[in-house]
């Protein structure tokens, strides 16, 4: 609006006589003063021109002022237009954002539905796959049990049992319940047949790879199957030992205890070198089980014999048995380091602690003989106090021998007793002999 007004003012100033671009000043002067007489009007014309110039200056000032106001109004109009356009764009973006958010929500809802459908479909496929494994596995196991194909059974049975656990929450379904009962009957039949075949194989001595497969099958069945077979196998391996070293046999007494241990060392060596140990799965710990049962059996046999023949126990024989037992247990501890359920340290040795009174009686006899000898030497004058050895006390040479003998007895006793508390009682008893020694010689 202001721009139009400015344009009109400028157009009004474009007077032909003054504002033409091609105006000729000389022609304009000649027009104003055509004759010399007209020069008399020069002042009037000059005044008119000056007035016109003043008028033009005023108009120009008004025009400049009007132009400045128009510029400010234009800037404000442009800013307002820009803000309006920005608001329109923001509103458009907001509408697009709302539309996009709606689309995203719809897509998310669709994706969640598809995700749930995918999970359900995957679970259904897995369940059908597991059911197929279960059905085919149960059918195959029935056939393989009849054919005694223990290698195939060992490979398939763990998988079938693991798959069956996945259906524990579906046991109220009749079909699943029937399959579970059928598999349980097959397991019972397999357990009876397997133990029978294992016993027959070991009794016949025909060991081959099928025995390893049988043991793998036994590991997959209930723990009772493995435990029963291990018990039978160990009893079978130690049956000869029970006969050879029965309580009525001459080699069963503790004076020949080294023969017992030698027999088992040979048995264990044969068990490992013949490859029999590798037949059993490592987690069966058959070597440790065999050794543990032998040690328990030996300890019980020794306990019964020594209790029944207590009067026949002698110190030398008892010490002989204990020393060989210590060496045997040391060998076992090196071969089978201690672990949960299997610790062979003092497993047989402790049975002798109940008979340490034999040691006390023997050592007391040695001390009594020593004291009697000292008394005899003192009475017949063979031994006399050594006065030069001290200014106020006169020790006997036998007193030093007495302490050396006690030291020797305690050292020997510490090697023969497995229980420190038992050894402590012996130490107090032996030192109680000192007052008797003093009283006897004085």
UniProtKB/TrEMBL annotation:
GO terms for cellular component: cytosol; GARP complex. Residues 22-378 form the Vps53 N-terminal domain. Keywords: Coiled coil. Residues 39-66 form a coiled coil. InterPro entries: Vps53, Vps53_N. GO terms for biological process: retrograde transport, endosome to Golgi. This is Vps53_N domain-containing protein. It comes from Anisakis simplex (Herring worm).
